[in-house]
Amino acid sequence: MVDKKVITLDSDFINQVKKEIRPHWGELGWVTYKRTYARWLDDKNRSENWDETVKRVIEGNINLDPRLNHPTPQIIKELTNEAQQLFKLVYGLSATPSGRNLWISGTDYQKRNGDSLNNCWFIAIRPQKYGDSHISPDYLKKDQRAVSMPFSFTFDQLMKGGGVGFSVVDSNINQIPTVNQEVELSVVIDKNSKSYAPSLEKGAIDLDEWKKEHEKDQDYVYYKLPDTREGWVLANARLIDMHFNATNPENKKKLVLDISNIRPYGAKIHGFGGTASGPMPLVEMFFDINQVLNNRAGKNLTAVDATDICNLIGKTVVAGNVRRSAELALGSSDNQDFIKMKQDQDKEKLYHHRWASNNSVAINSKFKDYDPIADGILHNGEPGVVNLELSRNYGRIVDGYQPGIDNEVEGTNPCGEISLSNGEPCNLFEVFPFIAEKQGWDLKEAFALAARYTKRVTFSHYDWEVSRNAINKNRRIGVSMSGIQDWLLNDLGHRVVIGFKDAEDPATGEKIKKAIYDPKGIKVVDQLYQAVVGADRKYSQELHCNPSIKHTTVKPSGTVAKLAGVSEGMHFHYSGYLIQRIRFQESDPLLPALRACGYHTEPDIYTEHTIVVDFPIKAANADSKNFASAGTVSIAEQFATQAFLQTYWSDNAVSCTVTFQDNESKQIAPLLHQYRHTIKSTSLLPYYGGSLKQAPKQPISKDIYLERKKQITGDVEAFFEAENDDVKGLELVDQSDCASGACPIK
Asked: What sequence ranges are listed for the domain Ribonucleotide reductase alpha-helical (predicted)?
């Protein structure tokens, strides 16, 4: 057997690049990187430097090329050259993989868990088989459909740090059989466990006492949870499946879950990182989910029930030390109970668990009843809308109707930029064209490298059979661009929407304002799209795999955009000048460096043991007469900009959170209707303008910005490195891979 060849980047090459290229750090860039993506190096007793992170990430990716199992010298030469080009691209911050890749790629965890390179997933909530998956309950046959499966998939992916979109549309929920019986649940714990007392407070009972009381009772199922992610998932699966006769082979009505072996609060989690929550959140989740199911004994689960179960899982994962637990629930557009499940009468449930998902409704282009949706958005920021018909039958809108081009699409990831089939993940890489042009890149080459990077990710080993099937068939990739507003304004001299003209809706005859786009803007994004598709076609031939079913997207960005200091995804800067507030744990070793360099810090008024740091930020092109911010650009132009990108760039979808002023709220329903044939998914939020105390973003004047900048007199990176070589840092409290905070990074 021939050992697989491994491509590496040698130190001479990296040292030369460091002399030639300077990373384009944004004003928050290095601080964000150091606290978010720099992994701890035990052998050096410090965290990574940027060149070490990029080396790890690129090597982790390039070695996914399956040809390296039996390589020719030519393949080794070509891939080594490609790795070097990718290193230059990412090191200079002209582009980056997703935050997940920055954190995981090239680690041992990646090798054990191929799923870990993908940010987000989608699953349909209906009975499904586990098949040949790494998690498969032993009481089920491999091909047996079980109600628990999509909930297990959701639980597993959330615990691995991914976000999950899930569909509770009526056609899925109606496939769930009647809940046959109530289950009597007992959670037991040994008194020697360090979690004994706090677990009793959550409803667990003493193991020895339970044994005494049930010495002669054998009418129960007993499961002792191993101290693993899989153990948590399997326990929850058993709990769910016992409520249904078809998946309760012992025909038992009592379940005993023994949590004695679960590591206590604060214990280290090896591999993925972080510290354990202890079993207490899990105990609470078991009882809560059992109650949802018991309440439906003799009846059928509803879309609200299924969403509640997913939200209860998400709440537990957050407590389990994955900082984000991003979920998007997709329901039927005529299911009023689902649409209203977060409104006033359910405040108790909202605060308890329903906050754990963003909720959207599935529509098609014939849908007309946008007024209730607009009212919900106005009062609650939800629901968003997802047009599955467009996703199934269109790539880019300019390429026209292509029946069934993506016919198995059922939903989307939590941020809405990738339409997905059952079990499928999003697979992202973004280029910052504004920065790439500054650094002398041919944009077509940069986007081609991005396409090849994402293609290799599809050759990871995936844990779930349903995912492997979808990925092997679709090979879906999501090459994104970010800093779009900076780039177009710089290259065109103005924004891409150059005006509006009077027109009529072709179906209804209603008067509308049709956007006029800059022809140069259309041409340049079209050329970059063709570069991505061409690179994918060529690489697919080399790898003897299917071409990607779709290729391009616009992700919301967020933390990654902060690295390079560009506008987030397609969004306009929040303001030309602003205070960006970042929250740190009070023990974070970066705080002394920030204070020493003149940054304003103060205690967080909302959360104990947390410090807020003010960062004065200037947007690129802030002084241009054609600059617009989220606080000044109209709702109509934001819709038109999203439509431009969906028409000429993205064959997947475009993530966009449209911001609106109070006086624009009446335009929401008409604009949603106007763009029903163009926009695949969107969401809306009111523009607060930093009116909240210690708001994350507060618009300021240029004079205040300059005054704040004068107060900053030191180099945070230099101060930190001098004082903290042996300090293991903590994470930022409120960073995410997405502008909205929806998607996790780790």
From this structure: 9-107
Q: Is 415 a catalytic residue?
A: yes
Active-site choice (410, 417, 568, 717): 417
Whole-angstrom CA distances from 462 to 6, 452, 458, 467, 526 are 21, 19, 9, 7, 33
Tokens matching residue 743: 């998607």
By CB atoms closer than 10 A (0-12, 13-18, 19+), residue 490 is middle
CATH of domain 179-299: 3.30.1620.10
Residue extent(s) of CATH 3.30.1620.10 domains in the chain: 179-299
**pLDDT tens per residue, range 566-619:** 999 999 998 999 999 988 888 888 899 899 999 999 999 887 788 999 999 999
pLDDT digit string, tens, across residues 272-300: 555 667 788 899 999 999 999 999 999 99
Longest dimension (CA), the chain: 82
Spatial CA neighbour of 17 closest among 40, 41, 50: 50
Of residues 120, 415, 426, 743, which has the active-site annotation?
415
Beta strands in 266-357 (DSSP E): 327-332
Main-chain phi, psi angles of 359, to 5 degrees: -115, 135
- Known catalytic membership, residue 426: no
DSSP state of 126: S
Task: Please count the CA atoms within 13 angstroms of the CA of 673 that sit on its side-chain side.
Answer: 23
pTM passes above 0.90: yes
